[in-house]
Amino acid sequence: METVRLRLDVAYDGAGFSGWSRQPGLRTVEGELVHALATILRRGDQHSAAPRLTVAGRTDAGVHALGQVAHVDVSAEEWEAMARRDRRRGVVDGAPGASLRRRITGIAGRAGDLVARDVTVASPGFDARFSPLWRRYEYRVADRHAPRDPRRRGHTLWFDERLDLDAMDAASRSLTGLHDFAAFCKPRPGATTIRRLLDFSWSRDAEGVLVGQVRADAFCHSMVRALVGAAIAVGAGRFDEDALHRVLESTQRSGAAPVVGAHGLTLVEVGYPPEHELATRAELTRARRGPVRSGGPVRSD
Amino acid sequence: METVRLRLDVAYDGAGFSGWSRQPGLRTVEGELVHALATILRRGDQHSAAPRLTVAGRTDAGVHALGQVAHVDVSAEEWEAMARRDRRRGVVDGAPGASLRRRITGIAGRAGDLVARDVTVASPGFDARFSPLWRRYEYRVADRHAPRDPRRRGHTLWFDERLDLDAMDAASRSLTGLHDFAAFCKPRPGATTIRRLLDFSWSRDAEGVLVGQVRADAFCHSMVRALVGAAIAVGAGRFDEDALHRVLESTQRSGAAPVVGAHGLTLVEVGYPPEHELATRAELTRARRGPVRSGGPVRSD
Q1: B238 in the same domain as B212
Q2: What ipTM score was computed for the predicted complex, to two decimals?
Q3: How does pLDDT run across B113-160, given as a tens digit for each residue?
Q4: How close B39 gets to chain A, by Cα (Å)?
Q5: Selection from A14, A273, A12, A277 nearest residue A134 by Cα
Q6: Of B11, B64, B150, the CB nearest to A113
Q7: Does B168 reside within a domain?
Q8: pLDDT tens per residue, range B35-67
Q9: Model's pTM, two decimal places?
Q10: Which of A18, B69, B127, B258 has the fewest CB atoms within 10 Å distance of its CB?
């Protein structure tokens, strides 16, 4: 059966979700999107299967996203039927993707905390999970230097000590490169912990809030929050600047600082290669990320 | 009895409050602060009276603040008793104001939505309400051009049309100056509606969100939200650029656009004159704002 692959760009406030991945009885981002898509595609009668989403970054409970990317395959018939309904309704503003975007937001994002920013037909070879070149996260920390903005407390860690920006920044930058990040990963059987950390740096925004930028080809589980926890330990003077590199080289989780709270973390952007490299990149990633478990590919975001 | 006047700089997320002003049975910013101060000052036994707060901007339900300012008078005895308790507890980081700041935030801001940013002994002649030269508000609007950030939906109006920034900005700037703003005020008997609008302008921030800056010597009730509603009507093409000035000159509320939602509005800053002008400025303002009702001075924020 011919299928059409749709790319969904979504943003969400993580506070109201038990993370990305569907779980019975819990409100999750994937669960809300699957429900919305099933409603819009009118599945249930003709199809026994719920739409299956594949995502770039399986965010944990409480983690936010501005630039999350997922894909879903719909049949050419479903796609055409949607377009026909749009035409009947007199939807005029361009591609069926635009009306799909509005309807997904209307159904899945009734609470305002989940927004479909864009829905488009994916380029050939596109795979939301395996095509990315990198994922970029931001972590916000208001230390004692920074004024606290209660409006933004849901996505900012409030830290009651002074943090040394330069020390944090230097220590964080020293971790970039291709390394075994086992010391900063929750172990998962069969999954590699080797990652290429492309950026890890800190600056203060206009209000004085510390913003950590973390970009890597992919992240193992809890890696960003473990890295940020370690950087904060340096900023607070509990670790010296070389400590992060020593912890990295030890590949032992025991030496690391505590993982920081999820609410300061936002998946900001997923970087994909140009269209002609999408398929090659996906094949390369699949080959490199190691074995596939019976329940599906191992977590690699 | 000798008193010490304390200046409180506070920030809050308006979503959890029924506005600034104390109301029986409702959670208000003033109510939380008065409760915290009464607890810290150990009133109740010695004093029958709750601490009385005077505020720069009596924000409505749902309106946020980053730079709200209030004052409270405490007796010299209470102030000295607090300082003694701090010394006994070994509080070392400077003035009693610092420990008071932390305790107010700890008691009034348990939910994280109310923060005392600073507590200091006020300069001589300081009056939170009558000394200000101006109040500055910001209003955030994400129109169809701007990506929606679900993390910030609590303090941003989502508007589903495209807004013409230049038209809004030009129309808004045309309203600055000393005018009778009756067309943009909820009428209150005996209160003047003449205000000096110092700034009213629009720009897009780095994310593309429209941010309106509104600064005036003082605002009558609902004035900022009426001005913003009118500017949005221009941006959406429902009013032409000259319409705002015509509405202003009509001094008739009927001609104005709908008042916009409270949640997009934040009191950002209150501007006070240099110390030697504080008392003169307060006297001048009291004289100019017109009659005083039996229930206290008329609303003038």
Answers
A1: yes
A2: 0.91
A3: 999 999 999 999 999 999 999 999 999 999 998 999 999 999 999 999
A4: 23
A5: A273
A6: B150
A7: yes
A8: 999 999 888 655 567 899 999 999 999 999 999
A9: 0.91
A10: B258
